[in-house]
Design brief:
Low-confidence stretches: none
Strand content: over 45%
Distance between the termini: 40 Å
Helix content: under 10%
Structural class: mainly beta
Shape: globular
Order of helices and strands: EEEEEEEEEEE
Number of helices: 0
Largest sheet: 7 strands, mixed
Oligomer: single chain
Mean pLDDT: 96
Length: 121
């Protein structure tokens, strides 16, 4: 099993920044891809960004391109989501996900518990 623990959520004003972290533990040596998803109240969960442990390109939803950056630290088994120029519509619970395949938008086998991000006007 793989355990994923997110941190870094919080309340920020529009235009501000936050950095989310997701630490993987357990049998994480076979993980290939890790991603971030989010779910706003009353909406379906949506893809935000993804990265592979081996490197290569990163992937983003159109709604966050140019504002969010996903990165990884293999030594720490951790991925990050740097979120800049935040908008109220970015308000959601953000989830970290991991999978042994090369999927980008899913499905993912492992999920974290989520961290709340709230962007105020």
């Amino acid at each position: 099993q793989v355990q994923l623990v997110e941190s870094g959520g919080g309340l920020v004003q529009a235009g501000g920044s936050l950095r989310l972290s997701c630490a993987a533990s357990g049998r994480n040596f076979f993980i290939n891809t890790m991603g971030w998803f989010r779910q706003a109240p009353g909406k379906e969960r949506e893809f935000v960004a993804a990265v592979r442990w081996s490197g290569g390109p990163t992937y983003y939803a159109d709604s966050v391109k140019g504002r969010f950056t996903i990165s990884r630290d293999n030594a720490k088994s951790t991925i990050y989501l740097q979120m800049n120029s935040l908008k109220p519509e970015d308000t959601a619970v953000y989830y970290c996900a991991a999978d042994k395949s090369s999927v980008v938008r899913g499905p993912y086998d492992y999920w974290g518990q989520g961290t709340q991000v709230t962007v105020s006007l």
